[in-house]
């Protein structure tokens, strides 16, 4: 069989000069069961086109595409009173914890014989710079307090209970 | 994350602020503050002397070094005192006495009067004490000399126990 015509068509095909009708001839030729071995190498090229034309979308194609492109479902949660106050509750919890630690530390480090009342000594401005003068003022003041205690009816050897319990 | 950090920082700041030790004002400081808004009170009528805890330490050191023989009771009592303030009014003592008693009576939660049977001798002398944990930490003596139109308020802070009272009563 003379395949010269087919070879010419192929040559024109490679040169992109074939018409639609000539390409159809080529496809029909290569779709035959028997193709000469010299042309068999080109068979896959033309049978590929025919096979691909038969390829169709599966029945589930649409649903799969839609599944991929659909927006994710966003669940809307109600902003409840509890959720709104949660940051403040957390802050209060932190305050409670730190205050607890601070209180415990304060208790642990407080020297027991020091009065727990903290006076404003930082604001004091001494009237005297000479300790001797301060001592004399102190002596006078203590004598005045001594007289006051005596007038309050306290006697020597009365315990401090006389001041803070019985006489109050 | 930033918001959470902000909340925690705020909480810490508030906590530390709350933990900051609140300072108490001694009675004379409160009284002088009160007088600034009292009608009829005049700064020229009164004086106030202050012996701070720092000066008290110097006084004690001086007393220790000099070993004044006849002042044993004073030395014993001094060790209990942390500070002294003496308010003296030489004019309008009646006004200041009334104001002072009014302020003390407003603070009965803190100050309690050492009650005495009124006699001619002590009618113008009042003693008030402030306690903390059953320990006297502040002492206020009000002494008015009506004839001289004089008012003296002696305000001591410190640790006043039975030993202190005994030392004073021996003076």
Topology:
The complex is a heterodimer of chains A (168) and B (171).
Chain A: H1 4-14, H2 20-30, H3 43-54, H4 61-69, H5 81-109, H6 131-151, H7 161-166
Helix pairs in contact in A: 1-2
Chain B: H1 2-19, H2 27-35, E1 46-51, H3 53-66, H4 72-78, E2 81-89, H5 93-106, E3 111-113, E4 125-132, E5 135-145, E6 150-160, H6 162-169
Antiparallel strand pairs in B: 1-2, 2-6, 3-4, 4-5, 5-6
Helix pairs in contact in B: 2-5, 4-6
Could you provide a short overview of the structure?
Chain A contains 7 helices and no strands. By secondary structure, chain A is mainly alpha-helical.
How many structural domains in the coordinates of chain B?
Answer: 1
Question: If interface size is counted as residues with C-beta under 8 Å from the partner's C-beta, which chains form the largest one?
Answer: A-B, 59 and 81 residues
* Average predicted confidence as pLDDT of chain B: 83
- Tell me the fraction of residues in β-strands of chain A, as a range: under 5%
Which regions of chain B are unreliable across 5 or more consecutive residues at pLDDT < 50? none
Number of DSSP E strands of chain B: 6
**What's the mean pLDDT score of chain A?**
82
Round the Cα radius of gyration of chain B to an integer and report it: 20 Å
Protein described:
The complex is a heterodimer of chains A (168) and B (171). With 168 residues, chain A is an all-alpha fold. Chain A has seven helices and no strands. With 171 residues, chain B is an alpha+beta fold. The model of chain B has no long low-confidence stretch (mean pLDDT 83). In chain B, β4 and β5 (135-145) form a beta hairpin. Chain B has helices at residues 2-19, 27-35, 53-66, 72-78, 93-106, 162-169, and strands spanning 46-51, 81-89, 111-113, 125-132, 135-145, 150-160. At the A-B interface, α5, α6 and α7 of A face α1, β1, α3, α4 and β2 of B.
């Amino acid at each position: 069989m003379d395949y010269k015509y087919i070879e010419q068509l192929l040559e024109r095909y490679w040169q992109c000069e074939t018409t639609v009708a000539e390409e159809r001839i080529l496809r029909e030729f290569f779709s035959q069961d028997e193709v000469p071995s010299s042309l068999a190498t080109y068979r896959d090229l033309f049978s590929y086109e025919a096979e691909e034309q038969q390829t169709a979308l599966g029945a589930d194609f649409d649903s799969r595409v839609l599944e991929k492109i659909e927006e994710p479902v966003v669940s809307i949660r109600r902003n409840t009173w509890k959720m709104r106050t949660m940051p403040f509750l957390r802050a209060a919890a932190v305050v409670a914890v730190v205050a607890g630690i601070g209180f415990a530390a304060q208790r642990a480090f407080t020297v027991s014989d020091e009065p727990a009342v903290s006076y404003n000594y930082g604001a004091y401005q001494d009237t005297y710079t000479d300790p001797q003068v301060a001592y004399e003022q102190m002596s006078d003041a203590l004598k005045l307090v001594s007289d006051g205690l005596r007038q309050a009816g306290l006697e020597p050897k009365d315990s401090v209970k006389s001041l803070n319990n019985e006489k109050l | 994350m930033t918001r959470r950090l902000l909340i925690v920082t705020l909480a810490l700041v508030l906590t530390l602020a709350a933990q900051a030790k609140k300072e108490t004002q001694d009675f004379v400081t409160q009284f002088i503050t009160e007088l600034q808004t009292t009608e009829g009170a005049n700064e020229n009528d009164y004086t106030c002397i202050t012996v701070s805890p720092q000066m008290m330490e110097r006084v004690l050191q001086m007393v220790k070094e000099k070993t004044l023989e006849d002042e044993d009771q004073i030395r014993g009592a001094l060790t209990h005192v942390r500070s002294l303030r003496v308010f003296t009014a030489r004019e309008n003592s009646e006004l200041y006495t009334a104001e002072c008693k009014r302020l003390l009576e407003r603070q009965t939660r803190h100050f309690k009067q050492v009650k005495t049977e009124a006699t001619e001798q002590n009618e113008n002398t009042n003693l008030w004490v402030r306690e903390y944990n059953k320990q006297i930490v502040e002492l206020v003596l009000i002494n008015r000399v009506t004839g001289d139109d004089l008012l003296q308020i002696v305000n001591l802070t410190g640790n006043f126990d039975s030993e202190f009272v005994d030392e004073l009563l021996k003076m």
